[in-house]
Design brief:
Structural class: mainly beta
Distance between the termini: 40 Å
Number of strands: 11
Largest sheet: 7 strands, mixed
Order of helices and strands: EEEEEEEEEEE
Amino acid sequence: QVQLEQSGGGLVQAGGSLRLSCAVSGRTFSSYAMTWFRQPPGKERELVTAISWSGVRTYYADSVKGRFTISRDNAKNTVYLQMNSLKPEDTAFYYCALKYGDNWPSLVQEYNYWGQGTQVTVSS
């Protein structure tokens, strides 16, 4: 059974930073791309960033480019999301997600496993 356990998040002022972590258990972590989605209040869940199994390829939504950094430590089966220069519009519930394969479609339905989610609130 694959489990994704998230940590981090919370309340921060605009311009501040937060780091999210997602620890994966139950499967060979290094064989899969990892992603972070977010769901703002009243909106659909959206793909924010992704990283290939090797860590060589990454993807960032335009809204977070230059501010967010995704990384992974395959020895620790953990993926990280460093969020800098946070804005009020980054306020959302953040989820890590895993699917079979080394790609990252934007459709939520493509993903097999999800973290429990963590709230990130950015005050102005």
